[in-house]
Amino acid sequence: MTYSVKENISILLPYKENFNKWKAGAVSLYVSELSRSSKYKNNIYVFGEKFKGKHLSNNFIGTEIGYDLISSKTKRYLDNYLLYLKNSKIKLIEIHNRPNYFHYLRKKTKIKINFFFHNDPLSMKGSETTELRRKMLDGCEKIIFNSVFTKKCFFGGLNEKSYIDKYDIIYNSTNKIKKFPKKQKLITFVGKLNHAKGYDLFIKAVKKILDKFPDYKAIAIGDEKRKKIFFHHKNFKELGLLTYDKTISYLLKTDIATIPSKWNEPFGRTSMEAARCGCYTIVSNVGGLKETSNNIILINNITEQKIYNEIKYAIQNKNIKENFQKKALKNVKHLISENTLKLDNIRKNIFLDESKSLNKKRIINIYNHGAKLNHRLYNISIGKKISSGFTRNGYDVIDISDRDFDEGSRFNKVKKFQNYVFETLHNYLPKILIFAHCRLIDVNFLKKIKESYPNIILIEWNEDYLGLEGPDSKKNYKSLKLKEKFIDYFFITTNPKKIIGKLKNSFFFLVPVDKNIENLKQFKKNNKFDIFFALSHGVNRGVLKKGKQDERENILKKIIENKNINSHFFGFDDKEPIWASNYNQELAKCSMGLNLSRGKPIDLYSSNRIASYIGNGLLTFVDYKTGLQKIFNNNEAVYYKSTEDLIKKIIFFKKNNKIRKRIAANGYKKYHKLYNSESLAKKIINIVYNSKK
């Protein structure tokens, strides 16, 4: 079997579904009607089993399943379909009413899939368990139900709110009839002639009606292979199975229609059609039948007596009946035009080329702005520098601060923040979402973003220590690792090869400088103090914490004890930490800086003070074990191997001002040239977009 079809949408029918005018069922009619007026009508092909007779449309591809003692009919049918897909250019598959088809095809093809439920999902192979239904939600673009009833069945045992963007309801549809038809004294039943459809109740009720009102006649349209219900009356006929058009012609003449189902009808097309044909429509209140029209008579716990009473009432109250019929004909609830548009919009959103719909020049950056801290973190904010870098590279950036988000209630802060971000994504359509140290962004939210915007690029950066021996390092690493499945790129301030464990797509970055923030040139000056260091007990706290000890204090105290060094240290020994402009003012009084970070030295890691020190022109002392000499050589920074070595070198450079200024100037120039906010943003962009430059 070979095909040369090059259309976009392939609709897959159940293999027993007869797509011809004589025996078309609800699924075939649904597909035919929503395809006929679709804007994609020339791009839709319906695939099904080959049957004799004229097809409902010319876009039908029929396959012969054949006979095989080894494989099942279903497998042969689906393998034929896969062969068809292989030789076509299908962008979207729409599977109708066979969940097991979905599971088989999802393993065999990467083509996007929509799935349509026409029956109770809990009664169907492939969707009977919550686990199977979760797989469908994960693997489908959209799951489309033909009623609220089938939707509620599907989400039994699942959290529907978690999948709000994964499903929709598109009902069976019909068209309005412009002119009220001429009615005959005719009572009609349409459906299988069995107990489940309430045919037994209908004939018992209609026998009494025909005996009481001999000018009325009744008909039944439908069949039943194992028929067990028989009825004979001079004013009653069973017409058998009729075409859709012929059935509608009878409903147009029908005065009173009955749909007395006992089972939970998933929707009930006959009820919808009878109402739009202007029938006084009597319906049992089960399943999705009540959703078919706003102008039907609903009966709870239906019985033959209740059917009889309703028919009798309609016959005896002609004016009420006719007003009801006219309302039903005028107020058709489910129109083909409206539902076709709804389905086409779903398809349109799937077909959108996200490289165009998600703007490559738009970025959302989520980080702590420090607004609640009166912006005292502005000069050490990496997030602020990253945004400035993107902007200077010609990108448009929306900055969002998770820490400054209006909490409302602390119990719903996460949900409110995530809704805010998601709505912003929807309105702005950025190609990149970058964030850092945000507790309000969890794995489930990242999953939701990826499901809604599969081509969005998610980036997380982290400035924390990620080595084996550091403060909260295991916790910091675990936080990143949990999100690894959904994050496209990690940018970290530790050599990715030296962190606690593996982290996919992780890249090192040096804390950047920014020309508008690190704008001092201390190498040009002779300063009051020799060496600067600022310690803190947490950026959010902002003040000393009683009883708090820091292992770095031992080194600082030894420097202070040396009377040859005029130190300028903050953040310990009852000396409060300094922030913002006060930080810069005190730093500006010094010639040198000590780049001392928490935790055991690890390859390439440094706190963001390194940018403040080298970037402001201080001669900066760095622990040799950090390996930062790979970035700044001995002519750009000074490396020490012990506390004693550090003290000796501080004293040496204090006495050798000229050498101090030269090395500090070299470090300053390199930092501002190669590791500024603009170059970091460019590095991120180049990695993300796989630039060859």
Overview of the molecule:
By secondary structure, the protein is an alpha/beta fold. The protein has four domains: 9-169, Glycogen Phosphorylase B (Rossmann fold, 3-Layer(aba) Sandwich), CATH 3.40.50.2000; 186-333, Glycogen Phosphorylase B (Rossmann fold); 354-508, Rossmann fold (3-Layer(aba) Sandwich), CATH 3.40.50.2300; 522-675, 3-Layer(aba) Sandwich (Rossmann fold). It is 35% helix and 17% strand. The chain contains 22 helices and 24 strands. A seven-stranded parallel sheet has the order 3-2-1-4-5-6-7, sandwiched between helices. Strand 20, helix 17 (552-561) and strand 21 (567-570) form a beta-alpha-beta unit. Helix 13 packs across helix 22 (677-688). The radius of gyration is 37 Å and the shape is elongated. It starts with 8 loop residues before the first strand and ends in a 5-residue tail after the last helix. The model is unreliable at 1-7 (pLDDT under 50).
